[in-house]
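ugh ok fine here u go
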Amino acid sequence: MTISRRRLVFALPALIAAGAAVPGAPVRAQSKGTRLILLGTKGGPRVGGTGRSNPANLVVINGVMYVIDCGNGVSQRLAAAGFALNKVRFILLTHHHSDHNLEYGGLIYNAWATGLASQVDTYGPPGLEDMTRAFFDYMKFDIDTRIVDEGRPDLRKLVAAHEVAVEGAKPVLVLQNDDVKITAIAVRHPPIKHAYAYRFDTRDRSIVFSGDTTYAPELADFAKDADVLVHEIMYLPGLESILKRVPNAATLREHLLASHTVPEDVGKIAAAAGVKALVLSHFVPGDDPSITDEMWTAGVRRQFKGRVICWGGLEGD
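structure:
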């Protein structure tokens, strides 16, 4: 069965939350259990032209917010979904491509601007600490001014950046607390060495994010028996629409072919993992209205007979 929705919200274990189908409608608060909210599903750094935002996801576990990737628009998507930015407590980046980290600093700042007073812990590949410091240097004048003029706490003292070096398919522990165990493996996204998939194991559900990757059989082992696999997808016939709009990237075609996963291979991963539900995301191209949900899922369904959730429209995530 394929499920298509204009806004995709998971209230696990029920999977799809009732009352969340209207774009722009706030997501009702839930203090217990695990939920998955897709905030942005358009792969690549391009912006504009559609209602789809760049990559970002939210997992809420017993009321605590974990943001996975910070593509452009993540702050607005969180606010539109009814989540207070100053309640963000954890941020994880899968890798350092701009469509996954461009609003990393912006989300932290926007949380502070709306009342953040508690520590935010961030996790990601090597380079995260330098990126965090560089953002604070970039915003030094504003931060210093608001501390004095508005009586705010020092934002720089509220953020703890943790670099995680993962190589190969052996799962590495990223963080663990009373609510969740988060592990990571390296996936195949050349030329980037440190590109990760994340697995969230909570008391009620398990959720795996593929990150950006070409076909990676080791990902099936990592996602074994998960309740939900959120996997990127690339529709090969749609590549020309990207290339025509990006005239300054001479080897973009080669990069896309080497670094992303076609529908049939997405289905192979989901089938080998035995996941209960496959959620398609990071659509490449994510801004071509001629590609229907059926076109996105046809190749997937040839390999995976389980539940497939696809939102391929352009009205809003």
